[in-house]
Amino acid sequence: MKAIVKEITKDQLKSDRGNFKVGDAVRVHTRVREGDKERIQIFSGIVLARRGSGIQESFTVRRISYGEGVERVFPVHSPNIEKIEVERESVVLRARMYYMRDRIGKEAMKVKEKRLAKA
């Protein structure tokens, strides 16, 4: 059964979406339809978790908006996602960063950044 589902969904997988990891600061460009009009809306924040595999893979992005923490879960291979930009890469030692939910103020968005090698 699992092989059949993989075979059916393999043409719907997006190859350009797997270039981010947990802890990275990303900007997710989503398509929003309002009536007969369509626009792009950007949701930027830190990736807390990635889960699933194949067509069912999803990721959670968290940001602070007007003092409140807002989380949103996106399917990685959704046709409503235009693109995913990585703003800042980070180094984390965990697969899920749910401890970020308990942080307050500036600490809520701090993650250890990746140091780039000097040329």
Question: Can you give keywords for this protein?
Answer:
41% strand, 119 residues, globular, mainly beta, single chain, 5-stranded antiparallel sheet
Structure explained in plain terms:
The structure is a single chain. With 119 residues, the protein is mostly beta strands. The protein contains 1 helix and 5 strands, in the order αβββββ. It has one helix at residues 2-9; strands at residues 25-34, 37-51, 58-65, 68-75, 81-88. Strands 4-3-2-1-5 form a 5-stranded antiparallel β-sheet, with no helix packed on it. Strand 2 and strand 3 form a beta hairpin. The longest helix has 8 residues, at 2-9. The N and C termini lie far apart (50 Å). 12% of the residues are buried. The model has no long low-confidence stretch (mean pLDDT 87).
